[in-house]
Structure prediction request, 222 residues.
Amino acid sequence: SLFSLVLLVLLPGCGSKGGEAPSAPVVSVGPTDATTVDDLSVSVLTESTDPDGDAVNYSYKWTVDGVLRDDLSESTVPAAETAKGETWAVLVTASDGEFDSTPGESSVTILNTPPTVSLVLENEAPLSTDDLVAVATVEDVDGDEGDLTWTWTVDGADTNEDDDTVPATSTAKGEEWEVSLVVSDGEAEVSPDSIEVVVQNSAPTVTAVSIEPTEAYETSVL
Prediction:
């Protein structure tokens, strides 16, 4: 009857469940200075609440440069999935099982990772007859090409040597040589510790030997 219909509408708790969706969660994706070696992770700053008091569950949608990654549906993204310069965004939706909230959204841009560099000398006790050879090992997870700048000094004074090798003809016994290196990937510069080495004494060499006189007799002094 009409009276029963009005009663159902007016009495709280009667009739079907209310049709209000949960509130939108406030989320953040981090770290904010993420590089290609960092996993991305979602933090819920303000939890979603449901008007009916129902428990809510979150679902995640990830995009990279605006393109949906439908293969990613968890709250984290492994570092192996990201690359420098990409912008990753996440949409977090709360659901009470019947209604979905407006998504909470956050994004982050993947920053450059500086290269890692190690520097050694091929010979730590070079003779004056040896070249000085520096060996650099450069790794860059972003795949950037490293630009190497070499600097050599001798006894504290600058030299014109600007390569990884100083020829033996440029060195002398007792000199103290120091090599420094700067590696740039175009965005960041890295300088490993410089290395010092003292040029050691080289033993003399015998290039020829002879006996005089060339025609000797029993009475000759050799």
Q: What stands out?
A: The helical segments are 2-10. Confidence is low (pLDDT under 50) at residues 1-17. Residues 114 and 188 are 6 Å apart (CA to CA).
